[in-house]
Amino acid sequence: MSKVKRGKVVSYNKWGYIFLIPFVVTYAVFQLYPLFTTIYWSFFKYYRSGLSVIGPEFIGLANYKELLTTDLPKYALNTVIMWILGFIPQIFVSLLLGSWFADPRLRLKAAPVYKTIIYLPNLIMASAFSMLFFALFSLGGPVNAILTSIIPGFQPYSFFDHTWSVRALVAFMNFIMWFGNTTILLMAGMLGIDASLYEAAEVDGATPTQVFWRITLPLLRPILVYVLITSLIGGLQMFDVPQILSNGDGFPMRTSMTMIMYLNKHLFSKNYGLAGALSVILFIITGALSLLVYKVTDRKDD
Amino acid sequence: MKKKLLSVLLSTAMVAALLAGCTKNPGTSEVTSTPAGSEVVSGNVETGNTALAAFKTAVEEKYPELKEGTVVDLVDDGNYTATDGGKEIVIYCWNDEFQNRVKDHCPDYKADAADPNKGTYKGVDVTWVITPNEGTAYQDKVDNYFLGTDTSAGTVDIFLVEADYAIKYTGQNASLPMSEIGLDDSVFADQFDYTKDAVTFDGKLKGASWQACAGGLIYRRDIAKEVLGSDDPAEVQKAVADWAAFSDTAAKLKDAGYTITCSANDTYRVYSNNVTSPWVVDGKLNIDANIMNWVNDSKEMVDNGYTGTYDLWGDEWNAGFFQTGNVFCYFGPAWLINFCMAADQEGSVAHDGGWALTEGPQGFFWGGTWICAANGTDNKTEVAELIKTMTTDKKVLKEIVEKDSDCVNSKSLLSELANDTTFTSDILGGQNPYKIFLDGVGKVSLKNIGQYDQGCNEEFQKAMKEYFLGNAELGSLE
Amino acid sequence: MAKEGAMQLQMDKEKVTGGIRVRRVVANVVLILICALCLFWFFVLFINTTRSNSALKAGFTIVPGGYLIKNFISLFKGTLPVWNGLLNSVIISTSCAILATYFSSMTAYAIHAYDFKLKNVVFTFIMIIMTIPTQVVALGFIDMMLKWKWNNTFLPLIIPAIAAPVTFFYMKQYMDSVLPLAIIEAARIDGSGEFRTFNFIVMPMMKPAIAVQAIFCFVANWNNYFTPALLLSKDKVKTLPVLIAMLRSADFLKFDMGQVYAMITFSIFPVIIVYLVLSKFIVGGVALGSVKG
Fold this sequence. Notes:
- The structure holds three protein chains of three kinds.
- Chain A is mostly helical.
- In chain A, about 70% of the residues lie in helices and about 5% in strands.
- The radius of gyration of chain A is 24 Å and the shape is flat.
- The relative contact order of chain A is 0.14.
- By secondary structure, chain B is an alpha+beta fold.
- Chain B folds into three domains: about 1-40, no CATH class; about 90-210 and about 365-405, D-Maltodextrin-Binding Protein, domain 2 (3-Layer(aba) Sandwich), CATH 3.40.190.10; about 215-365 and about 445-450, Periplasmic binding protein-like II (D-Maltodextrin-Binding Protein, domain 2, 3-Layer(aba) Sandwich).
- Chain B has 20 helices and 13 strands.
- In chain B, the strands form four sheets. Chain B has a six-stranded mixed β-sheet, sandwiched between helices. A three-stranded antiparallel β-sheet of chain B has the order 11-8-12.
- Chains A and C meet through helix 1, helix 2, helix 4, helix 5 and helix 6 of A and helix 1, helix 2, helix 5, helix 6 and helix 7 of C.
């Protein structure tokens, strides 16, 4: 098979390079150069204080050492916790909805309406969304009012002052903003699946569970891999939601501070050295994890 | 490890509960959220970090040089350039406040009808470059100009600053001494000292403001009558004349079901405007005695339930502006009273004229915008005249008071207003606030400002909130 | 007659699989609740848009206020170039969506359809750079744009969209699942050139994927604040999020939360419209199964 393919395609291979030109050129010009400067400065003591520039002074791996021996591991853990809190319900709900939409026997009449609505929360920008969250979950807000009226003796709870409630709110908001996105991705993938396969399964009397596990899931694998990897990357890069909900500081006691929020702190104080080192560490962690996930889940040989 | 796993599971259950709470009829779901929440306190103590240590870490992230026990010296090398003949006056600012003042009150300024960011001043084109102040965007914009990385707007002639970070520019010859553009100290003689302290470096005045954002203690008349027996400012002042009296009054208010302030953050500015030492001494963080008083007083007040720990401008803070609220007083200047207390909304205390003003325990200011002449300006004469007109011309300042209700930077004008019976405030139940502002602001001194103030003040309040809430011990800076 | 027979068969089958009706009811109930959760935020936003700055301070209520029209009038009569901002946002977001989807498909096609030496290297490289957080290169990128004097133009906001690794990865995965090489070879046999094959045979097949990524790309750029805030300082070129930030940092004399909410509502409308238009491609179901073996 592969021999035949190679034989036929070989004369066209130069087109592979031609089609790559726009991407490669754009990337090299706009991203690669800034990326190299980021990596370069990570070995330097180099920051701004007011209008003075300190450094650049070569200090080897000192920036890396400082980051790894102080609080970065803690922030990595926070990030992972909040990502998992949001991702588990997200993938669960998205797969469930996706399988419902894809199941021809269920014949959900309103499916197009449902499909359209679930993505809508993503259209609100995170900063505006969080304004609504603050209004709803404030001490005198409607959530506390409802809880007080339902549960006897309930004291209004300050959601933004406690570790787990802040983390839960971050996860909840991420969930609402992103589960529609995941569902859409999965749905688009499901549309690529031949409808006749489902019809055949129906004729053979397969149960919905069987259809899901034997047909939908295996054929959806490339898209699922995409969802898993991008969600992992997005999760490790989690920033705007916790940044706004925890006042930019991972309140309380930085238990909701993520790695990018930490990076953001150094970027804002114009510490090119530390920010560079942190970027490189982040990039190594995310890159390694993504490649690993890709290699494990995307076996081409079957 | 087990513990961590358990907490992950617990929180997953909580999200499920939250989701259930929003999608199904809540039954058991909220019950689970309460224990998950109450687990918090032990969770935080586990981090082993103290509030002051957290403060130190946060400040060192902002100012890495402090990690090494050094400070970056502010150097004004006296290398100034200011010329005439430029074709365009470029003004950097973060909103259109100053633009509107100039447009409305400056006789020689002609606004462009089509583009609000264009105009002419004495025949020279004016361009306003507005960078909204989210994050540090505005300061970045100004920094990039003076560091030479952003020359897109041409030569900047004027830039605006706030007191918190003014020294960053006044201390490194980004802003010109007023004397350098022909305005000597006598021009500004009628201005309040603190407004000059804020932009003075090495004895040189390097900016000017048209505002004096003097603050006072704004209290509710009905609660004062109920608890203190009188709503007369002089009588109420006795109950809040110093921090000890303030605390005693807080106890009385608590017994009557009120909190004296909404949040410990309300009083921070009052304490921090009255410090006797700077934030950094010899490269080391230093906590002034008055700041420490704020910590101790506030901790006691929070623990006793006299006040909360909410953020200013949040929903909880706003709630006190209404009759349904239970907050006795706020600390603030004229603009807070006039524009932020929801006077046009039925049900607000301000709408019913239910507030009154007194001096409170210590004098303070809040807010204000300073005009700086940029080093390198090529419209020296116009810049000087604009600054002079906008900050010292009494006719202009009087207009600003009348139209915009700003508390302006003129001792003599404020004295006149204090004795003018027509300048009464409906929100304050017919009281004339200017006398109190005048007395309070005269006492503010900004002799101890330093280049680390903005970061230190912000981070200190954040760290102390953790201490007040019981999330962390106070600890020490070592 | 045959119809009746088929119906009978259908009913039998439903009995056999059992509870399909129950499942349908459960699915509908759950979906309705989830949709309510999604729409709830728009309801809150709408309520807040109908209230005055002062009323908003009194806390959230579910009763709308009477300020809806007043808030919009003060927004449009104010000094902010709202319509200009709308136009700028439309131009930038549309261009980004087009460039990102077209060129990412092209890049993905290069990897998917051709077998060249550096193929795996390039693919691994893109996979790795995909994981670089945008913040990492932001500072360097902005410094470079300032140096080039590209600030206050749309170029730095649009052109980088050509190299969008995440979009590329999706296109690549999508091609893996829907685009057999046999089709390309069939096209070659018919004498179609490579560009032609890509533009007129491959691209139409990618429609659902393009619609999905076009939406994501459009929304991401529509809501982008960080880079535009640092690069666009002239009012004429500012985008909607930057204008919202300006409203929010207005001085106390003009600060009006009602207007901020009106502005947010105003800037959400166009995205909803674009979304509804594009979502037809996804939701309506484009028949793709025909070529799948």
